[in-house]
């Protein structure tokens, strides 16, 4: 129940992000979710895409430094307090969230949270035991 995420290390300069999206678009790869974190010189672009193997290959062929990480996609009801509920469950069990990002498919329905945990397998078990639906990679890639 893990999702493959690719991370692209980018120089923090105009047009670099556009180069990534051009390479993906030219290869017919659709972005399902993303997060961009920056420092003064570099940024880390985290992506969930429709075809992570092909994305990694074409980005490397175009000179980008690309990594791959397993993350967890959890579905929650899109309502006030939904995120707090999940974070509270994890916090009570001592699971640390290293980073996360989220997207909503349709407002008022469900949101999808992408997590990187310090103890991934334990986090999945805790969430499932508390009735949180964990999405498979295929479900997220095909949203």
Fill in the CATH topology of the largest domain: VC0802-like
Q: Number of DSSP strands?
A: 7
Report low-confidence residues grouped into runs of 5 or more: none
Mean pLDDT: 93
The CATH class name of the largest domain reads: Alpha Beta
Beta fraction of the residues? 35-45%
Please name the fourth-level CATH homologous superfamily of the largest domain: VC0802-like
Share of helix, binned: 25-40%
C-alpha termini separation: 16 Å
Protein model, in words:
This protein has 143 residues and is of the alpha+beta class. The protein folds into 2 domains: 2-69, VC0802-like; 70-142, VC0802-like, CATH 3.30.2130. Helices cover 33% and strands 40% of the residues. Strands 1, 2, 3, 4, 5, 6 and 7 form a 7-stranded antiparallel beta sheet that branches. The protein is globular. It comes from Desulfoplanes formicivorans. InterPro entries: ACT-like_dom_sf (IPR045865), ACT_dom (IPR002912), ACT_dom_pair (IPR045739).
Jot down its keywords.
143 residues; alpha+beta; VC0802-like; 2 domains; 7-stranded antiparallel beta sheet; 40% strand
Report a brief summary of the structure.
The longest helix is centred in the N-terminal third of the chain and has 11 residues, at 16-26.
Q: What are the SSEs and their pairings?
A:
Blueprint: E1 3-11, H1 16-26, E2 31-38, E3 42-49, H2 52-61, E4 65-77, H3 82-92, E5 97-104, E6 110-117, H4 120-129, E7 133-135, H5 137-141
Antiparallel strand pairs: 1-3, 1-4, 2-3, 4-6, 4-7, 5-6
């Amino acid at each position: 129940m893990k999702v493959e995420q690719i991370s692209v290390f980018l120089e923090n300069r105009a047009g670099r992000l556009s180069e990534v999206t051009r390479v993906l678009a030219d290869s017919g790869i659709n972005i399902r979710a993303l997060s961009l974190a920056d420092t003064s010189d570099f940024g880390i672009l985290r992506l969930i895409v429709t075809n992570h193997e092909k994305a990694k290959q074409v980005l490397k062929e175009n000179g980008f430094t690309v990594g791959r990480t397993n993350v967890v996609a959890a579905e929650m009801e899109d309502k006030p307090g939904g995120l707090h509920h999940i974070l509270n469950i994890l916090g009570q069990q001592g699971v640390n969230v290293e980073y996360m990002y989220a997207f909503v498919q349709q407002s008022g329905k469900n949101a999808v949270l992408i997590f990187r945990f310090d103890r991934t397998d334990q986090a999945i078990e805790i969430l499932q035991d508390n009735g949180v639906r964990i999405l498979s990679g295929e479900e997220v890639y095909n949203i």
